[in-house]
């Protein structure tokens, strides 16, 4: 395809503003799939992605479109993830494009992730076409949202398209705008091969599949390619495009987006952002690439049944094949036995991995409190990264501790502002900015990630009745007055319940955790003290009183079948329990004990 007939674009939007629906419509209007193949939201392929309406891996689809000028164009649509945990993945997808459709729900207006995503698109110099979606809704307010796009984002919205991805109204104009308003790629077919590694994933039939954007030169089957950063050489087995069915093609030229396979064993060998070149005739220019995505949230994952440990290891290995940003290494816990310390891009990422492990691999798991990475500066001058509160060095060896801080952008109707400010202040936030666009407030706060990682997002949703949107990026590490708090159940420390907390908050958190555990741990035949402690100092205490003997006696009365049922039920319940010395702690206690409310 000649360069002038190629358009590479992404759709950027806040979650639920209609990105997937529009993508489906574009595929349908250009005949990319037959009606039978047209499942709703074809780009969100993973079951969980569909269920939660989120996209995690960049997906791409090539559309053939005959425009009003009579020419046929190749339109490559790269879908990008829409959640805050995956903003890093957005930026690399955008780098493979020349333009972006900015989709804004005309009944909602600009949201925090609209901003975050569109700024990323502006950063990589994309041409942006604003698209107001959901104009079929009675609540759509096109003029207000256009003004907001100009005021808040600062781009011209006078030629914004007005569409309904649901009914199809205006979708033909979107296709014309892609052709007439977005620039064609440039590139030199005669130059040495230079291509960007956009993404990679594991496919059961094809093995590792690499998504590429060719800048210069061409790439075809049999060619020896070199990943310049990874210093690895492979021979191409197949090049192709996704329509979104994987379709082999003879070659991929400049400006094109497609995939390659090359008997690559592991996704980890294909680092996103790497430059791919011809091993025999390499380019001299390495593309600027990306920062690797680093996990920011860590937690322990343990099998409820110790016999499942090997299955858990295998399952994690399989997930990792597809998701190089998920990390895990073996960990042993005095309380929970053998398991893994895992690293994630954020809390949603953590939840998704945990759910996939339980659902797709049928494992019963205990997840410990999520924690961020602390820099521990020791008195001997050395620094260690702490991924697990249980590994905190002896306080006498610690000079000071640094914690990660974020810059958070929150948008919400102004009536909820009071509650949001209070929440941010409670979480040690430092207000940076407060601006208005009509009745919507836009708040910028600096916050310690430690205070956000657990339930900040849930609390934000609840104080704003679901109307606030949130986005963040890590900015720096700052010293903090942090301590390790331990929880002792029946005088035994439960390492999986250790947390790192700001010393001003330790007392309240300790008390809250003890109260929660008192409710979460069932009564036993004996009295159980629950204590929170810093070093050797107890800062909070609760006691679970002993069960009266006749209560159990009563339970076991009655006929045999009822007794059997009770016993079975008990057995099933047992599976979700964990023995600590003489005390049984239910699995849910490990997460629930940490909720702040
Ligand atoms: P995404 O999160 O941006 O991918 O959003 P989706 O495409 O999944 O859409 C979110 C919700 O909005 C879904 O329930 C869609 O059916 C609905 N939706 C999308 N476009 C329109 C539209 O033009 N009009 C109406 N009324 N609903 C829409
Ligand atoms: Mg979607």
UniProtKB/TrEMBL annotation:
Catalytic class of the enzyme: hydrolase
Pfam family, one: LepA_C
Protein origin, superkingdom: Bacteria
GO MF assignments: hydrolase activity; translation elongation factor activity
Entry-linked PANTHER family: TRANSLATION FACTOR GUF1 HOMOLOG, CHLOROPLASTIC, TRANSLATION FACTOR GUF1-RELATED
UniProt xrefs under HAMAP family: LepA (MF_00071)
Listed name of the protein: Elongation factor 4
Source organism of the structure: Hyphococcus lacteus
């Amino acid at each position: 395809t000649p360069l002038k007939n190629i358009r590479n674009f992404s759709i950027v939007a806040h979650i639920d503003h209609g990105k997937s629906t529009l993508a489906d419509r574009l595929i349908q209007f250009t005949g990319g799939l037959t009606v039978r193949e047209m499942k709703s939201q074809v780009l969100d392929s993973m079951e969980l992605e569909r269920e939660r309406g989120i996209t995690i891996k960049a997906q791409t689809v090539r559309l053939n479109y005959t425009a009003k000028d009579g020419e046929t164009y190749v339109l490559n649509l790269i879908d990008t993830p829409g959640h805050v945990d995956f903003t890093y993945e957005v930026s690399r997808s955008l780098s493979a494009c020349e333009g972006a459709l900015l989709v804004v729900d005309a009944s909602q207006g600009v949201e925090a992730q609209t901003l975050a995503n569109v700024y990323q698109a502006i950063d990589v110099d994309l041409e942006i076409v604003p698209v107001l979606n959901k104009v079929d809704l009675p609540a759509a307010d096109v003029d207000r949202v256009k003004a907001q796009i100009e005021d808040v984002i600062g781009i011209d919205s006078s030629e914004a398209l007005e569409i309904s991805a649901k009914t199809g109204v205006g979708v033909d104009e979107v296709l014309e705008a892609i052709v007439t308003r977005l620039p064609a790629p440039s590139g030199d077919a005669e130059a040495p091969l230079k291509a960007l590694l956009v993404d990679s994933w594991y496919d059961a039939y094809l093995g590792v599949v690499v998504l590429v954007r060719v800048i210069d030169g061409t790439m075809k089957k049999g060619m020896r390619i070199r990943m310049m950063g990874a210093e690895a050489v492979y021979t191409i087995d197949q090049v192709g495009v996704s329509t979104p069915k994987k379709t082999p093609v003879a070659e991929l030229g400049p400006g094109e987006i497609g995939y390659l396979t090359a008997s690559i064993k592991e996704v980890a060998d294909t680092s996103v952002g790497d430059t791919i070149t011809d091993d025999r005739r390499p380019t001299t220019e390495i593309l600027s690439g990306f920062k690797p995505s680093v996990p920011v949230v860590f937690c322990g994952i343990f099998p409820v049944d110790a016999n499942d440990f090997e299955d858990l290891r295998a399952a994690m290995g399989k997930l990792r094949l597809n998701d190089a940003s998920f990390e895990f290494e073996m960990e042993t816990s005095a309380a929970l036995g053998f398991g893994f310390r895992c690293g994630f891009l954020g809390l949603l990422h953590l939840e998704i991995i945990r759910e996939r492990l339980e659902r797709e691999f049928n494992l019963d798991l205990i997840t410990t409190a999520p924690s961020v990475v602390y820099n521990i500066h020791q008195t001997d001058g050395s620094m260690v990264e702490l991924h697990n509160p249980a590994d905190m060095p002896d306080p006498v060896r610690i000079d000071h501790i640094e914690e990660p801080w974020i810059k958070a952008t929150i948008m919400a109707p102004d009536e909820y502002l009071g509650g949001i400010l209070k929440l941010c202040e409670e979480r040690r936030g430092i207000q940076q900015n407060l601006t208005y666009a009509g009745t919507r407030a836009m708040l910028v706060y600096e916050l310690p990630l430690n205070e956000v990682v657990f339930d900040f997002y849930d609390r934000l949703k609840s104080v704003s009745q679901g109307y606030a949107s949130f986005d963040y990026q890590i900015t720096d590490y700052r010293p903090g007055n942090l301590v390790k708090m331990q929880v002792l159940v029946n005088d035994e420390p439960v390492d999986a319940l250790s947390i790192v907390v700001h010393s001003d908050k330790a007392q309240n958190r300790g008390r809250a955790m003890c109260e929660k555990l008192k409710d979460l741990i069932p009564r036993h035949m004996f009295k159980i003290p629950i204590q929170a402690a810093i070093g050797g100092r107890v800062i909070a205490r609760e006691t679970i009183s002993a069960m009266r003997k006749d209560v159990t006696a009563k339970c076991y009365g009655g006929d045999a079948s009822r007794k059997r049922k009770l016993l079975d039920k008990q057995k099933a319940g047992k599976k979700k329990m964990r023995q600590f010395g003489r005390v049984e702690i239910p699995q849910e206690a490990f997460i629930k004990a940490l909720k702040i409310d």
